[in-house]
Amino acid sequence: MIRRHAVHLKLGVVGLALGAVLSGAGFSDFGQLHRMFTFTDVRLLLAFGGAVVLAAIGFRIHCRNAGMPRRPLRRGTVPGALLFGIGWAISGGCPGAILAQLGEGKAIALLTLGGILVGAAIGNRLKALLRWDSGSCAS
Which Pfam families does the record cross-reference, listed alphabetically (predicted)? Predict the structure, then answer.
């Protein structure tokens, strides 16, 4: 029981740190995201690209050390990534940034969160209807 609380506490601290970094870097500011997506200010784009590279390296090291096999690219990955990017550009927030926006008191983020939840539900229905294998850990 105490160990589980310690894990929750660690996850909470990591979440607080992530929220602080996202907010401090400007990923929760629609204006800054708009400038990133219109290429008028590449600062966030470079930060995001750097984060993707670091995450890719981390996942590669973790998967190799855990003995995980390579996974093929699924046919829904590219369309899903495009939809994610379009949604992020329109709404001004990805899932992590939306939580930071809520922490900043930006109530409009509730609409984006609602859109994410509805979109995920529609995606799950389509996946079941079309019998697509997402290849995710959940399936």
Answer: Sulf_transp (PF04143)
